Amino acid sequence: MEKAGVMAQLRVLLVDDEELALERLQAMMASLSEVEIVGCAGDGETAASLVDQLSPDIVFTDIRMPRQGGMALAKTLQTRPGVEVVFVTAFDHFALEAFEVNAVDYLLKPVKPNRLAMAIEKAKRRRTLSPALSGSQRETAGVDGYWVEGRNGMTWLGVETITWVEAAKDYVMLHTAMGAHMMRATMLRLGAELGPKGFVRVSRSAYVRSTAVVDIRERGQAGIVVVLSDGTAIKGSGRHAAVAQAAWNAR
Predict the structure, then answer these.
(1) In 3D, which of 40, 103, 41 has the Cα closest to residue 71?
(2) Domains, in order of start, for the chain
(3) How far is CA 76 from the centre of its chain?
(4) Average pLDDT over residues 66-91
(5) Which residues lie below 8 Å from residue 7, measured CB to CB, with a gap of 6+?
(6) Element (H or E) spanning 164, and its range?
(7) Omega before 81 within 30 of 0, i.e. cis
(8) Would you give the DSSP letter of residue 82?
(9) Residue 246: its H or E element
(10) For residues 183 and 81, which has the higher predicted lDDT (pLDDT)?
């Protein structure tokens, strides 16, 4: 039983068909007091059976493996609440699929100790969520960033860096102080994920971070203009604008 206020060690299962890769992860984790390696497997099929036997908290898995790959394993584990997945792979082009199966993180080989520690910290944050949350609620509350296409492949964009979001047909544009990033998603999905993170919808096509708003100006029947701290002006309209305006007036 865990003592009050003390997080028990995270039980970790390592999955990779390369023995050297397993040994490297084991060596790096040996110095981490917050994790306990409870088992290793060389393919996803074996790993799935070990999950039932060992009840790990986190599964670190490669993607390309014989018998069953890591992506198929992750999809299987979505039906097992409380088991988080971290991908460890030499390929960067599976990152979008990793997000779709709600992976905690996506590490590229050779894994650096600081990135490993970051992934474990992300898993710990997810596990501190209230156990009363359902699986879908846990997924929504646990969203802390997105994988987006960058100049040098996929890059992680933390939610805290996003100031506003706009719709772009089947995509959305995530705006940050350093530029905008396009991602395939719906505004409905973004609303569910970003609402708990302090974002407010101001129109059918835009969400803004409430703490980035410095002014809201009325445009008569045309709606409102939301002004952000960096000077960006975003048009608000319809019932979303009315709600945003009321919240601003009541601050």
Answers:
(1) 103
(2) 10-141 (3.40.50.2300), 157-249 (2.40.50.1020)
(3) 19
(4) 89
(5) 34, 124, 127, 128
(6) strand 162-168
(7) no
(8) T
(9) helix 238-249
(10) 183
d(CA 237, CA 244): 10
* Residue 92 identity: D
Task: Retrieve residue 74's tokens.
Answer: 């992750």
Report pTM. 0.58
Q: Which amino acid is at 48?
A: A
pLDDT over threshold 70, residue 140: no
- Tally of CA atoms within 13 A in the half-sphere of 66 that contains its CB: 4
DSSP string, 174-229: EEETTEEEEEE--HHHHHHHHGGGTEEEEETTEEEEGGGEEEEEEBTBT-EEEEET
Round to whole Å and give the CA distance between 120 and 47: 19
**pLDDT digit string, tens, across residues 195-251:** 888 899 999 999 999 999 999 988 777 789 999 999 999 999 888 888 888 778 766
Q: Provide φ and ψ at 82, rounded to 5°.
A: 95, -5
Q: Which residues contact residue 190 at a Cβ distance below 8 angstroms, ignoring those fewer than 6 apart?
A: 165, 172, 199, 207
Cβ(218)–Cβ(250) under 8 Å?
no
Per residue, the 3-state secondary structure of 107-132, as one string, reads: EECCCCHHHHHHHHHHHHHHHCCCCC
Residue 30 CB partners (closer than 8 Å, separation 6+): none
Q: What distance in Å separates the CA atoms of residue 161 and residue 174, rounded to the nearest whole number?
A: 9
Spatial distance between the Cα atoms of 153 and 63, rounded to a whole number of angstroms: 17
